[in-house]
Amino acid sequence: VQREMSSLPRVYITRQIPPEGLKILSESGQVQFDLWDSDDVPVPRKELLQKVKGVDALLCVLTEKIDAELLDAAGPNLRVLSTMSVGFDHLSLEELKKRSVTSDLLPLVYGVNGEYGTTEIWYGDMGNMVLLRYSCVVLSPSLPPVSMDELASQSDFLTVCCALTPETKDICNKDLFSKMKKTSIFINTSRGGVVHQEDLYEALSSGQIAGAGLDVTVPEPLPTSHPLFTLNNCVILPHIASASYTTRNAMSALAANNLLLGLKGQPMIKELKL
Ligand code: DGY
């Protein structure tokens, strides 16, 4: 028996996500969805607060702040949140935790596209993928992580892949840069907030480190008048490290599948444990 569209769980998608994810949702026959139909600009907050009213699930990207205001606007039907990102610093974990506990319905579950290491930063999923690409080595998660000091003083390239959390905010600061080799390159593809930008500017302009490659900054986009742009040993990209058709399609498929599993009350492929 074909279910009436109106009885299907409602989903709001905050961006024109790549086709693979939309196909999965459409072909599932499990949900009805509405989306912000633009690839260029994020959905205006006012429109978002309006659109999430009463939805069962939300598929968002990192430009949307998922906070108390948004969760209140969505209301008690919301039970699945899936973000098309590895990072989760746009989600207010405290609010989500509070609501999972108090929800009368299914617990609210959240899907993220992968996992950053947390305290074992250097042996997390993302760190391992970087190593695999550049040196064909995979570190076992059971290996003890090295200290930050050791990492700083021995690395020729220091690549940051951790999530931005209260614990990791500004961890790349003058203390770290001062321990790096003068010939070392600093790379950040995670979140701008893990770097103390003024300290990085100092380290680069004084020759404390040789260079930096940044895909992420605070704010984004970084104003062109920012001092970091005046340096010839700093390359800055506008947060595009994942912007290939293949990767973004895979991310949208994972976000869609996570969402469908969450609605069925099944474990997600990648689930953020609160
Ligand atoms: C992520 O997945 O968190 C990236 O920063 C977005 O491409």
From TrEMBL:
GO CC terms of this entry: cytosol
Domain D-isomer specific 2-hydroxyacid dehydrogenase catalytic: 11-101
Protein's recorded name: Glyoxylate reductase/hydroxypyruvate reductase b
Classification lineage: Eukaryota, Metazoa, Chordata, Craniata, Vertebrata
Family: Belongs to the D-isomer specific 2-hydroxyacid dehydrogenase family.
Keywords noted in UniProt: Oxidoreductase
GO MF annotation, one: NAD binding
Xref: Gene3D superfamilies: NAD(P)-binding Rossmann-like Domain (3.40.50.720)
Domain D-isomer specific 2-hydroxyacid dehydrogenase NAD-binding: 145-241
Keyword Nuclease: no
Keyword set includes Transmembrane: no
Pfam family, one: 2-Hacid_dh_C
InterPro entries per the UniProt record, alphabetical: D-isomer_2-hydroxyacid_DH (IPR050223), D-isomer_2_OHA_DH_cat_dom (IPR006139), D-isomer_DH_NAD-bd (IPR006140), NAD(P)-bd_dom_sf (IPR036291)
